[in-house]
């Protein structure tokens, strides 16, 4: 990765974080922790990896993203707004009556969202189906799937994983956001998932673990060539990444704070942006 | 519409019709996909396994199968997904609801062995609640298959209909009611027999029981109309209300719990009308194992029960 691309993606990740916080601030509460943890992955996907066209968001041979942890909607919306799918100002209508930006991703409402998700686990099968569907039609496209580590409690996740490797769905890239926390506490305390990388390898995937908040490592993993198996990338991330107060908060799945607190978080992120741009 | 019902069993099997019809549909439309949950031997499609990549056995993972089908729909394919009725409804309901209906994907789900036709698989496999679940899904189409010509026609139509389609169909034999090659219109019920005293509204395996009952009632001087709505959703409300207005009495017959199925749908349709109302349906109880002949009696799903219920309703109204 060139230094220029690295800087570009780090800037994009920071902007996604700012957009995410602004989006959630507009409603006063929202799923902030798990949105911030995937900001870097979204930056690399939309900034350097995925073949997409904001001017033609439904083109059939585009790469697709299924954010199965649908509650990370605010981060997805911020990435899409920054990519040019819609006006940045629309982020500030999150969860307002009649909005096109609900808590959980909805492909019938938001331009650029490839699949509706929210009932955890379901995005996995949907993504596998999209990838198989593209393959059967000779469409050269990849489907990128983001699954939460808590979401992996769901049995459907493993049904889909078994299918993906058994049927050699090689145009699927499966990301696990291993941010260590779910709604009720630490993932290892709620339902210990053990070693995700080993698990996916046992399921027949090519599997690798990277620092999921490092754009360079993400880029290397997302662009590696795998031809005979689906690829699983375990993202070792921090829930709430980028805002120290959120990172340290135990209950950071969904947070409701005052406008002043949101502004403080935004100030910190903007200072980082300014420093990086300098 | 030509009715060919003569009370005799059709020698053709539903499952063979599924296999043969899907094969023809596949040949005519390369967007069509068949998904199954380790039951291709039960859907008449097993001989295709390994011959075409568009027949996919998903294994015993119904929720995943439905999700995969919905994902395929999102990229332009036309999936059919098959498993037994209980697993095609309650086992994967959240997936049907969200990945299918809510997400706006189009999928045809075929639930075989509805109600008592599960017979020797017993109560665990006997869906008396599948229609109730699908009725609660906005925009769903629900078809309770009456005979082979209907199955064939509906399978052809389903691939291009929007949203979630649920087809409940036995695997074995039936009595033929409609002529071969007949075209059916979703949402438009069929009047199989006209009548002035009462209308019997029946679907699925209860249609021929209703026709038998009507013949017996005629001997006793009761002139019963028989309607096969066949799409429980959308229901032909206009037709049903017209016949209830005309006769003043209605009896519903269905192979399903009386809660949430055709009985409930007809009650909704005739709400506010002054009429006698009866039903021949499964009480609010679970299924059990046994031969279908035993189960018909056990769950009161015979022409005799329709006859008795109709007399009771006509007498009161």
CATH superfamily of the largest domain in chain B: Thiamin diphosphate (ThDP)-binding fold, Pyr/PP domains
How many domains of chain A, as an integer? 1
User: What is the SS-derived class of chain B?
Assistant: alpha/beta
Question: Can you identify the CATH superfamily of chain A?
Answer: Thiamin diphosphate (ThDP)-binding fold, Pyr/PP domains
Give average pLDDT of chain A, whole number.
97
Distance between the termini of chain B: 31 Å
Principal-axes geometry of chain A comes out as globular
Instruction: Round the Cα radius of gyration of chain B to an integer and report it.
Output: 19 Å
CATH topology of chain A: Rossmann fold
SSE diagram, text form:
The complex is a heterodimer of chains A (278) and B (317).
Chain A: H1 3-27, E1 29-30, H2 33-36, H3 39-49, E2 64-67, H4 73-83, H5 122-136, E3 143-148, H6 155-166, E4 172-178, E5 181-182, E6 185-186, H7 187-191, H8 196-202, E7 206-211, H9 215-222, E8 231-236, H10 244-248, E9 255-256, H11 259-277
Parallel strand pairs in A: 2-3, 3-4, 4-8, 7-8
Antiparallel strand pairs in A: 1-9, 5-6
Helix pairs in contact in A: 1-3, 1-4, 1-11, 3-4, 3-9, 5-6
Chain B: H1 14-28, E1 32-36, E2 55-57, H2 62-74, E3 78-84, H3 85-89, H4 93-102, E4 107-112, H5 130-135, E5 141-144, H6 148-158, E6 164-169, E7 190-193, E8 198-202, H7 206-219, E9 224-228, E10 231-233, H8 237-247, E11 249-257, H9 262-270, E12 276-282, H10 292-298, H11 303-316
Parallel strand pairs in B: 1-2, 1-3, 3-4, 4-6, 5-6, 8-9, 8-11, 11-12
Antiparallel strand pairs in B: 5-10, 7-9
Helix pairs in contact in B: 1-6, 2-4, 7-11
